[in-house]
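Predict the 3D structure for this chain.
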Amino acid sequence: MWEKPRPEEEILAELEKALAKDYHFSGGRVISSMCTQPLEIAKRAHAMFIESNLGNAGLYPGSLSLETQVISAIGELLGGKGIAGGIVSGGTEANITALWMARNITGKKKVVFPKSAHFSFHKACDILAMEPVMVGLGDDYTIDIDEAARKADRDTAAVVGIAGTTELGAVDDIRSLSEATPDGVFLHVDAAFGGFVLPFLRKLGHAVPDFDFSIPGVSSLAVDPHKMGMSTVPSGALLVRDREWFRRIHKEAPYLDTLGQLSALSGTRCSAAVAATYAAMGSLGTEGYVRMVGECMEVTRHALSRARKLGIEPVIEPVMNILCLKVDDPCGIQKKLDAKGWKVSVAQNPASLRLVIMPHVTRESVDSLFAELECIMEGK
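Done. Predicted structure below.
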């Protein structure tokens, strides 16, 4: 800690220096992240509400009203009416809170989820003293429904399906998973990435299976506005079918100005994320999201075409704007691309080069990337 106050200009100069070391989406060379540059209006909205704390919602009725509208809009986007929920820090918090709720309601401790699930489910089981029950994948890298049905028993609190896996962007058969889930067991869907992609792909004419509250068995759902929702980081959302379920994780806080705050993992919840999400969704509307998702898919198809010209095939045909490529030594290629200033990632199941085609990734940046990749493959 500094002993005396420092000049503002000195502090800002150091911050600028630190910022310059970071990678930025604007260059189009970050092709590993599920986040992107937020909309300008989302940034402005975020700054407007930077001091507001929805953890003490009694002081911020305006912020609370915005959150109610945002949750209603996301719920309707995802096939539900009268859906409850709140804005949280991201998919990890949403997933942990959903399993916390499922444990307290059912009194059970087993969680059945696919091997493709996000690491947050392992984290949740560790925190909540729940038992992870892993389920294998089929040839299309989605959850094995028959195995899930066998493993979901009377001791199960929740079954989890994924609508857009982190590595491949694969979408589990949520309707069949719902039919395989025993009565009284929570069915939670992690659509952190897919939630702001799949509904708009459907409007573009893609064959998108049901994955959301349109399936009666779906209990809760996680979605991240700070991914394809174009909001600021951190902006996640947890949505549940029954508002009363939040009472099962509610803790009293009599010193607050209201006892009606969202029962979530975080105590402090910055209203900035709510305002930014409200601004992003309002600014784009359905038409804007459809256009944006369509553009991302066009660039994804272009990347796949460039890969095939090099004799590289995808692990699966891209369902969303995630493309994983079968290459020899993906980790070695990643390191060589990194040395040239490109940020791509490596999927583990199966080992492959992973590209996430977010709105900041253009055809031009894809062409530049594959030119570099071709040189690497030729040993240049």
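The chain has eleven helices and ten strands.
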